[in-house]
Design a protein that fits this description.
The chain is mainly beta. 11% of the residues lie in helices and 32% in strands.
């Protein structure tokens, strides 16, 4: 099907989530979005952009072609412009839909100006621009273009060689092209305009590429739109697409395209598997240096997205971005178009800074300056052609190139790990200044690189490897102090990078190193393996507890007690002293640590704050009992030489979660109630659980009980709080002769009646729902006090012992005093219905109180008055009114 032209929709606007390459129809040659999703958008202030470029842009020349309207979004017409730029042979024949606003046009011009400032090929690109509100669930931008299919590999290779010009990247690329056709003879498919630029077709359709911007998103119409337009034009207009035989055309034919030729999994190793081999793929000009990482649609056998395999899996114009994110063509983007056969304009640009991070070096040590710390890229020169010239050398150390002092080196030397710094003083910092020059003698301004000098901190050195921290980097040193840094994904692991996880041990192995990690403040551990350069290769364990046998089995190879249980290797039940085994849990002391074993000798250490508790750590307190619960363990403690106890709870890893009791005495019901769940006589009183109790009163719904020397406010199920003052249990005899004689629940807690032994003194108090005193309702009052008598009804109790609950009924006479030996008076009298005589008979003297009679009666005092009896017989007439 040579030169067969097919049109396919490509949805690859540079505006969706890199982790969810979605919405790609599987039956078309489709590239799905590859930039940040709407949920991750970053917004900038709205405003019209100026023309944006990197400084090489030249003024644009416009020629209107058959405009049928103004091009304003509201006009309902389209317009066209022919745009050229001085110094470039690229001509943009633009057609604008009526929906294209002036702000959008400004961004289109800026994008085309930037493209023309970098490449000079003689080609006219026929591009139509559209704008549609497609909703925030659609792509941010998309494009559609025709393909020339069935191009032989030999023809493609010859065309690329013919277009390598004098560009070092393009020359290196064509010199490294594979000899054998990677497509296996299936043929190669190129966008029409790109095939026309390479001389592989003469076809010139009216539209080479249609670019559509989704206006439903919050664009700033600045560099965010400019970068998106460049992303689209570089595909349908300039050929930056890949397929790897995984995507097909409308006829089901497997497709391959030029970007597939520049995928490598490692130096010199091409990778066409699209991630099915489980490896990451990177863009490289010739396989010597891995640059940005490509998107892979697969992870082993599993397809994880339908994304464009020619897009980079990073924040980049040719990768992903989002509305509000201003991106410019990167050095890798420029190299990408160079190797596709696009000819760079004359090089007038100095190398640009890519990475500048201070090197942390230990006092007296030698460390390499990695390319991740110091790197410049150039649009035309290779790293071999980028030369660093030292202006002022470091004051407290020496720069070395492969071990020899130097004042000049290349970026390739840094890439290869040859440039090192040897610290020779005892200072906190050092610097050197330099310039970087490319092959065209374009030089940067004076630059400065910084060194941070710190004293190494040895984390552990139990075996043959010392785990050392220098600044915020970790090193796996041998006995001579030399060794690699600890890395993940090829980059140094930085202190704090993994949250609370920190390395606590390391040891060399036959293939590299094993590294133990701990999560700060938690009983969580993990073990890594690394290669000989200290780079992570595998998680040997997941996150496990300190009592995990998978962790403890590693302790012997680390020569280290990783979990601080006092043993190197797994402890056993037989190796310790069993403190108690009353229930299903064996509280065992092993070395200086405590274990919560089951009957098989398995269980966690007892911990506080994630660290194992050491005997004697908390003064005289020591654990005396433990038992498994549904959520972990309960642990009883005792203070040596004192009547003080406490109960903890822990999680399933033995780590403290709460104090269930404070420090309480052995007679505390809160402690004694726990004895049954511990299956243990914790306080040594000879009983497991509470001793028998004495019911003081049970007249109402509350039972006032005395247990030992404590008082309890129980309900009918014998559940309720102890009686307290100031939060502490009230002890019998604690308040002199006063003792509680009655209690009753209220809406807010309890009311409690008290009596002073041997005296006519009473008092009423209230408590909260925990039995803790809140207020005195009465002071100390006599038994005849109406304040006391008024409470008898709510207590359901004759508090003062007068034979009646509450106020006495009319006609009752209360005898208050009499001479010794006097007979007791009648308890009550019954008055006639209207009139009569009440006789109070006493031998001598005494005092009687007439209670409840009418306010008026003949010959008597008002109700409630005390009537003295001066004679043995006193009669009172009364008349009911």
């Amino acid at each position: 099907m040579a030169n067969l032209i097919k049109t396919h929709m490509i949805s690859d606007g540079g505006a969706l989530d890199p982790d969810s390459f979605l919405d790609a129809p599987s039956d078309n040659f489709v590239f799905t979005p590859s930039v940040a999703s709407p949920s991750e958008q970053q917004f900038s202030p709205n405003g019209l952009p100026a023309i944006v470029s990197d400084g090489n842009a030249t003024p644009a020349t416009f020629a209107s072609l058959g405009s049928t309207g103004s091009g304003d979004a509201s006009s309902g017409t389209t317009s066209s412009d022919l745009v050229t730029f001085s110094g470039s042979g690229i001509v943009f024949n633009n057609t604008f839909a009526a929906s294209v606003t002036q702000a959008y046009k400004n961004d289109i011009l800026a994008a085309e100006q930037d493209i023309a400032s970098h490449w000079s090929n003689s080609i006219t690109l026929n591009i139509k621009f559209d704008a549609q509100a497609q909703g925030q669930t659609g792509d941010l931008a998309s494009n559609s273009f025709g393909l020339v299919e069935g191009i032989s590999y030999a023809s493609l290779k010859a065309a690329l060689i013919a277009h390598d010009g004098s560009n070092p990247d393009a020359q290196a690329a064509v010199n490294s092209l594979p000899t054998v056709d990677p497509s296996g003879g299936l043929g190669w498919s190129l966008p029409v305009a790109y095939a026309r630029m390479l001389g592989l077709t003469q076809s010139t359709p009216a539209t080479d590429d249609t670019v559509t911007l989704n206006t439903s998103y919050n664009w700033t119409y600045g560099q965010d739109v400019v970068g998106t337009i460049e992303h689209e034009i570089s595909e349908g207009g300039m050929g930056r697409i890949g397929a790897l035989g995984k995507n097909t055309d409308d006829q089901g034919n497997a497709l391959w395209s030029t970007m597939d030729l520049f995928r490598y999994s490692s130096a010199g190793v091409r990778d066409y598997t699209d991630g099915q081999d489980g490896k990451a793929a990177f863009f490289s000009v010739d396989g010597s240096q891995m640059l940005l990482q490509f998107n892979n649609q697969y992870q082993g056998a599993n397809q994880i997205n339908d994304g464009d395999t020619a897009d980079f899996n990073t924040l980049d114009v040719f990768g992903f971005g989002s509305p509000g994110t201003g991106l410019f063509l990167s050095a890798t983007d420029l190299k990408t178009m160079d190797v596709l056969g696009w000819t760079p304009v004359g090089d007038t640009t100095a190398p640009s800074l890519v990475a500048d991070t201070a090197l942390v070096v230990g006092t007296g040590l030698t460390e390499a300056i990695a390319s991740s710390m110091l790197r410049f890229d150039d649009n035309a020169s290779t790293h071999v052609q980028e030369t660093y010239s030292v202006i002022t050398g470091p004051a407290h150390g020496t720069l070395l190139n492969n071990g020899v002092a130097t004042s000049s080196f290349t970026q390739a030397d840094i890439d290869n790990g040859l440039i090192t710094y040897h610290e020779i003083g005892n200072f906190s910092s050092d610097v050197f200044t330099f310039k970087v020059t490319d092959a065209s003698n374009n030089a940067t301004t004076t630059q400065q690189f910084n060194f941070q000098i710190v004293s190494p901190v040895v984390i552990e050195s139990f075996g043959s490897t010392s785990l050392t921290e220098v600044g915020n980097h970790f090193y796996l040193d041998d006995s001579g102090g030399a060794g690699p840094s600890l890395k993940y994904g090829g980059t140094d692991t930085i202190a704090g990078q993994a949250g609370g996880w920190v390395p606590i041990g390391a040891e060399i192995t036959a293939g590299g190193y094993e590294v133990a990690w701990k999560l700060a403040g938690a009983d969580q551990y993990s073990v890594w393996t690394t290669d000989s350069t200290g780079n992570w290769t595998a998680f040997v364990t997941g996150a496990v507890s300190g009592s995990s046998s998978s962790l403890e089995n590693y302790e012997t190879s680390f020569h280290q007690d990783l979990n601080s249980d006092g043993f190197i290797g797994p402890p056993t039940n037989a190796s310790g002293t069993v403190i108690e085994s009353g229930g299903s849990t064996y509280l065992t002391e092993v070395g200086t640590n405590y274990y919560l074993y089951d009957s098989g000798g398995n269980g966690p250490t007892l911990k506080y704050g994630g660290a194992a508790i050491v005997a004697g750590q908390v003064g005289g307190w020591a654990p005396i009992g433990a038992e498994a619960t549904s959520g972990g363990y309960e642990v009883a403690w005792k203070l040596a030489g004192a009547d003080q106890y406490s109960v903890w709870t822990t999680d399933s890893n033995g780590n403290w979660t709460a104090f269930v009791t404070g420090a309480v005495s052995g007679s505390s019901s809160s402690l004694e109630n726990y004895e049954t769940s511990f299956h243990q006589d914790l306080n040594g009183d000879g009983l497991v659980g509470l001793p028998g109790s004495t019911v003081i009163e049970s007249s109402g719904s509350t039972y006032l009980n005395e247990i030992g020397n404590h008082y309890y406010l129980y309900n009918s199920s014998a559940v309720g709080p102890s009686l307290k003052y100031g939060g502490a249990d009230i002890i019998a005899g604690q308040v002199g002769g006063w003792a509680p004689i009655g209690a009753e629940a209220t809406s807010g807690g309890y009311e409690v009646a008290w009596k002073l032994a041997g005296a006519d003194q009473y008092s009423i108090g209230t408590t909260d729902s925990n039995g803790n005193w809140t207020s005195f309702v009465t002071g100390a009052v006599s038994g005849s006090s109406s304040a006391l008598v008024a409470f008898e009804a709510s207590f359901h109790q004759d508090l003062n012992g007068d034979g009646y609950i509450g106020v006495a009924a009319p006609g009752y006479i209360a005898h208050t005093s009499a001479s010794v030996g006097n007979p007791a008076p009648a308890a009550s009298v019954t008055a006639p219905s209207s009139s009569g005589t009440i006789t109070l008979a006493h031998d001598t003297g005494g005092a009687d109180v007439i209670v409840g009679l009418p306010d008026t009666m003949s010959g008597s005092a008002p109700v409630g008055a005390q009537i003295q009896n001066p004679s043995p017989i006193l009669s009172h007439d009364f008349h009911l009114v």
